[in-house]
Amino acid sequence: MEFKTFVFYLLSSILVLAALRVVTARNPVHAVLYLVLAFFNASGIWLLLSAEFLAITLVMVYVGAVMVLFLFVVMMLDIDFARLREGFWRYLPVGAFVGVLLALEMGLVLAGGFGGKAMPPAGATVSAADAGLFKCASNTCELGRVLYTDYAYAFELAAFVLLIAMVAAVSLTLRRRRTDKYIAPEVQVAARHEDRMTLVKMSVEKEAPSVVETAETGAEKTGGQ
Asked: Are 59 and 40 in contact (CB under 8 A)?
């Protein structure tokens, strides 16, 4: 057995076990961590298949962003997972049927081949139309060439749709409360110092009574009582 074959079977075994633990783990945090392990092993298998772009995309997007978001949601929200697991065995036959169907479809695709163009032999003449297909040395370069040439309009359309979805999500979730205080820059710029400070003229207060008058007033009040 070659070393590459041994690594493939090792990564595949760990991937299958990690996928099973994602479903059977009782702790949701452990399930997310097992899912991260499954993604890492899947990226390793893609590296063995010379799909470097898919492998690094899986690690960066799913492991680096989506799984972190899942961990934040699971650890910060108070979710009743026992209630969510009540219908697990009820939907198990449907899930098993879908899984078997997906496995059969992937097997048919792998058995039929990918239908890609093979590299021309050394010294063979290549037409001008096909000359650009063999310039890239890696699948990442080839993917970028096809994406930005043959599917340029579709790529721009997908980016435009995603931009609209992002703006719509921000607009729908933005809520302004009445208790919030807002600052109007035009009002601040148009303010004058006369409006900010007002001088008020107050009348002169009465003089304080002398000590003798205070004593006489006190004696009168005492004699009256």
From this structure: yes
